[in-house]
Design goal:
Elements (H helix, E strand, L loop, with lengths): L4 E2 L11 E3 L10 E8 L4 E5 L3 E18 L11 E10 L9 E4 L3 E7 L3 E9 L7 E3 L5 E5 L6 E7 L10 E7 L4 E2 L4 E2 L12 E10 L4 H5 L9 E8 L2 E9 L4 E4 L3 E6 L4 E10 L10 E2 L25
Antiparallel strand pairs: 1-19, 2-3, 3-9, 4-8, 5-6, 5-7, 5-8, 5-9, 7-10, 11-12, 12-13, 13-21, 14-20, 15-22, 16-19, 16-21, 17-18, 17-20
């Protein structure tokens, strides 16, 4: 399997279910993600070093405590303290959650208040920004696309949501039978006002569509929620990936066109996007694949999927 695809259960360590770090590969220098499954009372402590981090509950509630400053690692009295409880959510399909940002040169601890799963997106940072709490009701939710390209985007870690140096992060929920991350697009070249160079991680969770859960349970086999992710490059920068993805899997995109993300009939798809790049400006600018850009014009005469916004049903 491609070095850019990480299968659930094969890409973690003793403390984390998934570990992706800046510098893991020669073409991967800016972006990272860790996930962990924690029972109530369990914790993880992270020294941020030269990276900035976001604490994002996937399921469950968590307490975040941090110390920021030159003496943070030693817990010195000169370090600035930060503490917040994250109410979290039942699962990633339950709508936006509150989250916490912790900048570089700090140390933080995440403690599970209930059984749950946590995601820790992170990225290289030149500057230290203050710790911040982003409440769920402050997360911008947009319904993007139309028809079978309808999806729900939750902008918890974008430039208008939290002050940071380089990290850009959002969540996307794609109802069963729909395509998202479509039309295929790229962001691997800095062109002022047109495109920004950003690595990107897609982390997936999938579920059986609730409306058909009873039918799935009555079938001869056990439901196996899955989806598909396509990534392809240009002649001068080849990339060729078509991955069948399940909960806990991740795809790394160092460059190239990516999309669609496909949710087959019967299975809703969630993915967490984490982006960062070497540029001085923190901005998400994309270019559509010219062969498929016309698809956007069809949204003008289609309605948004009535199942969205998903968390209100």
């Amino acid at each position: 399997m491609s070095e850019w695809f990480r299968r659930s259960g094969t890409a973690g360590d003793g403390a984390y279910d998934l570990v992706i770090s800046p510098g893991d590969l020669p073409e991967w220098q800016c972006t990272g993600l860790r996930t962990a499954t924690l029972a109530a009372g369990q914790s993880r402590t992270v020294a941020t070093g030269a990276w900035e981090w976001i604490v994002l509950p996937l399921a469950g509630s968590f307490r975040v405590t941090a110390r920021v400053g030159s003496e943070a690692g030693a817990g010195g009295a000169g370090a600035e303290a930060f503490a917040v409880d994250l109410a979290g959510r039942v699962d990633p399909f339950a709508g936006p959650t509150d989250s916490a940002y912790v900048g570089r040169d700090a140390e933080f601890t995440v403690t599970a208040l209930t059984d749950g799963r946590i995601a820790l997106p992170h990225a290289t940072a030149r500057r230290a920004f203050p710790c911040a709490y982003v409440p769920a009701d402050a997360v911008g939710v947009e319904l993007r696309g139309a028809g079978q390209a309808s999806r729900q985007v939750q902008n918890f870690g974008t430039p208008d949501a939290v002050a940071a140096d380089s990290i850009i992060a959002c969540e996307v929920i794609t109802p069963a039978g729909n395509w998202s991350s479509y039309p295929p697009h790229k962001h691997d070249t800095d062109i002022e006002g047109v495109e920004s160079a950003l690595e990107e991680i897609y982390y997936y969770e999938l579920r059986t569509e609730p409306a058909f859960a009873a039918a799935a349970g009555a079938g001869a086999g056990t439901p196996d929620p899955m989806g598909y992710q396509r990534v392809y490059g240009a002649d001068e920068r080849p990339m060729d990936l078509l991955a069948e993805v399940r909960s806990g899997d991740a795809v790394l995109i160092p460059h190239g066109w990516h999309g669609p993300s496909m949710a087959p009939t019967g299975y809703d798809m969630y993915y967490l996007n984490v982006m960062a790049g070497p540029g001085a400006t923190r901005v998400w600018l994309i270019c559509d694949d010219p062969a498929h850009a016309w698809v956007r014009t069809t949204w003008d005469y289609q309605k948004v999927d009535p199942r969205l916004p998903l968390h209100q049903h």
